[in-house]
TrEMBL record:
It comes from Chlorobaculum tepidum (strain ATCC 49652 / DSM 12025 / NBRC 103806 / TLS). GO terms for cellular component: endomembrane system. SUPFAM superfamilies: MFS general substrate transporter. The keyword Metal-binding does not apply. This is MFS transporter family protein. Keywords: Membrane, Transmembrane, Transmembrane helix, Transport. It is found in: Endomembrane system. Pfam families: ATG22. Its main location: membrane.
Length: 435
């Protein structure tokens, strides 16, 4: 019994460690260092750099949104979830390492590599998140999900601390060798700390559901066309899972706003409030601390009061964050707002993953997480930044653009109030199995 308990803890820790590993990519290559490197160094500060960067992010997100559900279904029916996760992780690590060879004027080279790296990172999350209901019981999914995001923010803090000496001189041409080395360190960090999950976790080879379902899995498990048909069925019959459908729609809107805040936080701080590169590093490292705290604390809150109520609480916190950011006129006030944003960011994402795990039918867990992480999650990452950019350009104010995100949070809050958190298995008989 003790041995089984130790083994279970080791499996959970390896899962948590992957979040520690991959968030290093997110904070360095998507949120902070590489976007500024792409604009200031690769595009040599030209205005078109913003458009090229936005296009690179949007293309990568769009591709992940299109392929995630199909690959998720394929992983479910082939029993090779770990192989898919390994392939996506390897793509991200290699492409990130190759970005250390990018330099001034190498726009196409850098854009293609970033698109590949981000597809590897975002696509891998589909298979990673789908392991949550398998490694823990329903009673502790909120806690474990919270631990995962906490570990992720700890990883972000760690990679910023490691690269601090390399980034301290700023994102400027004179510092190019150090910046390139920092990207190589990210790739190494990602590779080393993601390795344990591939050793500790195993694919579930057996059938899920009845024996006939298992027989069909063995017969058609390797059929990619069957996966496409399966996704088509899921799309056509998604309303058979009304609570899951409502949650995904709510998640689409409020996650849209959250991802936009993340994507534009450094640009907003630098352009509107005049943050220097050094101040931005300190700001992001500080935000990680409250994100860790929020993920852990609200993980326990989620298990106590349920993920739906936790999400509602965090959305009200986000309202406060947006309003405070709009009203803030100093760096000090914005830093305090960032601390609150960090707490709500970790908690809302952890609670969302917990609710998704609770509402998802087990026999299609990877496929449905493909919709959660892929179609809905990544599509929102395309629309939110686009709206922010258009409003900012038309009105000439990033504060007004920030205010527009309140609409997305409001829609998410209104829709999620209609979600019932009972088990998906209680849905219609037709919904209990996709065949």
């Amino acid at each position: 019994m003790g041995m089984n308990d130790t083994s279970q803890k080791a499996r959970i820790f390896s899962w948590l460690l992957f979040d520690f590993a991959n968030t290093s990519f997110s904070v360095m290559m998507v949120t902070f260092a590489f976007p500024l490197y792409f604009k200031n160094i690769i595009c040599e500060g030209e205005p078109k750099g913003d458009a090229l960067w936005g296009a690179s992010v949007s293309i990568s997100m769009l591709l992940v949104a299109l392929i995630s559900p199909v690959l998720g279904a394929q992983a479910d029916y082939s029993g090779r979830r770990k192989r898919f996760l390994f392939a996506f992780t390897l793509i991200s690590v290699l492409a990130t390492a190759l970005l250390s060879f990018s330099g001034p004027g190498m726009v196409l080279f850098a854009a293609v590599l970033f698109i590949l790296a981000n597809i590897g990172f975002e696509g891998g999350l589909v298979f990673y998140d789908a392991w949550l209901p398998e490694i823990t019981s329903p009673r502790s999914t909120g806690r474990v999900s919270g631990y995962g995001f906490a570990m992720g923010y700890l990883g972000a803090f760690a990679i910023l601390l490691i690269n601090l000496p390399l980034l301290s001189k700023g994102i400027v041409p004179a510092n190019i060798p150090n910046l390139k080395l920092s990207f190589l360190i990210v790739a190494l960090f990602f590779a080393v700390f993601s390795a344990p999950i591939f050793v500790m976790l195993r694919d579930t080879k057996g059938s899920v559901g009845d024996s006939s379902s298992g027989e069909r899995r063995r017969e058609r498990g390797s059929s990619f066309m069957h996966s496409i048909k399966e996704v088509g069925y899921t799309i056509r019959h998604i309303m058979s899972y009304p609570d899951l459908a409502r949650f995904l729609l709510a998640y689409f809107f409020y996650n849209d706003a959250i991802l936009t805040v993340i994507a534009f936080s450094s640009i907003y701080a630098q352009n509107t409030l005049g943050f220097t590169t050094g101040e931005l590093i300190t700001f992001f490292m500080t935000v990680q601390t409250t994100a860790i705290l929020g993920s852990v604390v609200f993980g326990f809150v989620t298990d106590k009061i349920g993920p739906k109520r936790t999400i509602v609480i965090t959305l009200f916190i986000w309202f406060a964050v947006i309003l405070l950011a709009i009203l803030s006129g100093s760096k000090e006030t914005f830093i305090m707002t960032g601390l609150l944003a960090g707490m709500s960011m970790g908690s809302s994402q952890a609670a969302s993953r917990s609710l998704m795990a609770r509402l998802t039918p087990k026999e299609h867990v990877t496929e449905f997480f493909g919709f959660y992480d892929g179609s809905f999650g990544k599509a929102s990452a395309i629309i939110g930044p686009l709206v922010f950019g258009v409003v900012s350009a038309q009105v000439g104010s990033q504060k007004v653009a920030l205010a527009s995100l309140l609409v997305f949070f409001c829609l998410g809050l209104l829709i999620i109030t209609g979600v019932r958190t009972r088990a998906t298995a209680e849905a219609s008989p037709e919904a209990s199995r996709i065949e």
